[in-house]
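ARCHIVE CARD
SHELF: 3
SLOT: left
DATA:
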Amino acid sequence: MSAGEDVLIVNDLHVAVDGTEILKGVSVNVPRGEIHAIMGPNGSGKSTLANTLMGHPRYTVTGGSIVLKGEDVTKALPDHRSRAGMFLASQYPTEISGVTLINFIRQMVNARREEELPLVEFRRMVNEKMDALDMDRAFAVRYVNEGFSGGEKKRSEILQMAILQPELAILDETDSGLDIDALRVVSEGINRVINPEMGVLLITHYTRILNYIQPDVVHVMMDGKIVRSGGKDLADSLEARGYDFIRQEVAP
């Protein structure tokens, strides 16, 4: 696949959680080299979409399809999706006591390879990525997310993304819980990792992160559907007017 081709195609996706339908026919294509923002009020289905794309077992696909790089992964396990080039930066990163970040990342890297990456080469790669992200190397020997601030948790996931180099990055409310300084630092890190071969699905409730990470397309989700798509000006309208004007437009 080359830049511009769709790395992700979601077609008429219906998803239920505990028997309740949450996504009601979501369709979205994300080409390589583009950033697509999914916006919407709380409860609109944004995080359900993120978790479903990654294959979380709690989310049951009842219709539609998920195609990654030309392969239908609708029923694939999360491990397969990860190996195929999908990455999810979750809204609430999990703490893993007793496991250092560097060992955690090494396991992820080796899981994607037929042969383990030599330790010296791996450490060199990690150090280079941390330096590029202006991260203190001591950060790597801390236990995964244990005692981390909100910004540190998000920077940890950016480091993982930088090392894994996914072809599809799903960023689920990366701005959640960040103050303005942490948001700027985290956004700068994301911008350094994004490349022309990567498609990005940026899920957010607020427009503030879009002042740092410029989207190519903005989609508005409400009640489990994408009801409007546009450019950055759509996000600007949401900032100025809130979601009510779209609710009124799409009301039956």
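SLOT: right
DATA:
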Amino acid sequence: MSATASLLETVAQLEPRPARWRIGLIVLATDHTTERDFATLCPNADLAIYTNRVAFENPATKKNLLAMRPRLTAAAGLILPGESLDAVAYGCTAASALIGDRAVCEAIRKAKPGVPVVTPTSAAIDAFATLGAARVSLLTPYSQTVTDALVRYFEDNGLEILNAVCLGLTDDRAIAQVRPDTILDAAIEACDSACEALFISCTALRAVSVAQTVEDRLGLPVVTSNQAMFWRTIRQAGCNFSVSGAGRLLQSH
């Protein structure tokens, strides 16, 4: 005869939240890198990251990147439905530049009203301001067309892009397979002698793993998409801790 469950006399005591800070993260359906980078950069047990994926069809053309805009509301709405978040990050640099930071924010806030929204592009702009860098070299894994769109975005937001180089890849799954030593070599080659900082673009690229090494080699600040996005997101959420080993940006409060 099977046992019958009985109700304990102990009453379950509930906390308002299981984690002090709650961050939502929207990544591409094909993404291999962003969640891993956020997990690597998250040393605080009081910070919880809740991830959902948004449909995306490779290759990374302007048409396919723009197609994500109307999907962002539903993707955000499925992150702790009916509950508040302290910030939401959208993990696509190229799409943020093409859709526009404001439009990304509006789409996400339809599901999460009033939440601070962070894109890799807006995070990079804030990062360069914090680092005091206005003359920037740009390295991307994208096609020349998508890279040119990113150059225009940064120039429209007040940066001087001294040079821009790209690897010519159009599939974010292939971008995630680029070896870290290739990223390191490309970053050294991409850096103009007159630049004040280097931006390594793309949330799919495993650039966080080499950011500190590139900085040490160049003697200049290095900003990557995921590093900057994580830095700005935790600060938008009200966190105030630093992370070592991933570039000087994350060491600043």
